[in-house]
Records
---
Amino acid sequence: MMRRLAALHGILALAALLACGGGGGGTTSPAPSPSPVYATTLSYTDPAGTGFRLVKNTGLSTPGKLVLDLTGPADQGGQGVAFILTTDSTKLAWTAPPSAQSLVENLAFSLGAATPVLIGKDNGQGTLQGAVFQKFGTQSFGQPLARVCLQLKPGIVAVNAPVAIGFVSGNTLATGGTVAGFNVAVGNCVAQ
């Protein structure tokens, strides 16, 4: 009988220990993963220099929309410019600048009423082809010449991730119809 009582006490003590969680070996649920934080703003630093460059239009840009003006050197002039720009199409999309009818907005050239030469074409993979020309006379390149705009794709880009914007090639049409290549300086863009 004593043995039975001792065994019964041992079983009760073990049951009490397990009921209180003292048995060890319990499982814990993993901590939930933090939700990813996505960028909502594009921060752009203008390039240095006085040649052809893409500069931020601070008056028209919004947190998720970057408006860039193509500006040229003051010591050159001509009838127009053509250019190809690229970006990472998984993060940004080319879109029409505010109050523009096209992906490229003319800022300096007299297009005339009959068949203006204003082109803005997105290939859907991040490449924008732009051109703006006037038929007669010339304009100084030392001013904003054309405007483009990039929209941040929501819920995709991580905070503080660099976003590539690049220049591929460009041509000017100088006085007298001479075509010449040019380079465009592009600043740094970071999603925040």
---
Amino acid sequence: MDLITAMLGYIAFLVGIIAFQSNKHKHIVLLKAFTDICFCIQYILLGAYTGAATDLAGCVRNLIFAKEFKRKNTQYIITTFFVVLMIVIGIVTWDGWLSLLAIAGKLCTTVSFSIKNTKYLRLFTIPSGIMWIIYNAATGSVGGVLYEAMVIVSIIIAAFRFDRKPKSGVTEPEKS
């Protein structure tokens, strides 16, 4: 793996860890859009085209979620559109069981990012991280493996920071 490929993974790693330490839906999905673009380019360089295509779609999805979540009527339409799109991408770029991991991982985050409550957004992102750890290990993305492992750790830290029963002066997770 060359330096540029590795650097993309490590940059995404740093930004992604910061993302889940936010308690605002918009901040999480915007930072995750940046990580998706970095990983998209990295996967292209690694020849992992299902990962690249699903991350590109994930970036667009996150940008739309960040903008359109103020209108509840569009939430379900957008989520359904991206679930179908991820399945179509998976069919078009199919490369065996690894493709299934990338598709399932993005389906998990599509559903989790459609949830405005950051507590549940984080919780439903964990299965995606597990699938992407395996995908990244198999495709040679060391930064991706580290990123997903640290995202899970970051989610656990954020759960302790934000999702526990509130004490006096502590705010609850953002809700719709």
---
Amino acid sequence: MKNLEKWQTVNSQIVIDHPWCQVRRDEVKLPNGNTIDDYFVYIKPDVAMVLPITKNGEIICVRQYRHAFGDFFIELPAGHFDPTQEAAENAAMRELKEETGYIADNIQKIAVLHDKPGKDTNQIHLFLAENVIKVEEQNLDSTEDIEVLLIPKIDVFNKIIQGNISVAETVAALFMGLK
């Protein structure tokens, strides 16, 4: 394996500091001596994502509008959290219950994925929850409008191939969790 060197941060400053969006501008020195004076990094909170499966073998998904693309997407339940304030497992259970009304007795960590490590700072903590049951109605945030879908396991990969499920972290989670 080639011996690669890390980039050196020469200067760093926050150029957008808003509760919903933080952007850092770094000046970095590359191992070859070249300098990039405007390398932008998006500071994003970690995400807890859960792959919930009912005892009947149905995957609980959520369908919601995503404004950046102006369309609706099918995803797994997930949400942002601050790992210094809340354990990833607790965030995953909370998001599952809030977005779908389902709960799980326990969840198992599958993986920690890196969203876009070239530009984003967040990680996606992925969990598997089996034998989930519905206990209440959704408890959505004021900015959420979510449809809950129960998709039989047997149909999931066809939905991915057909492009009905196309969000990268959801696709990765489904392949990893249903291996």
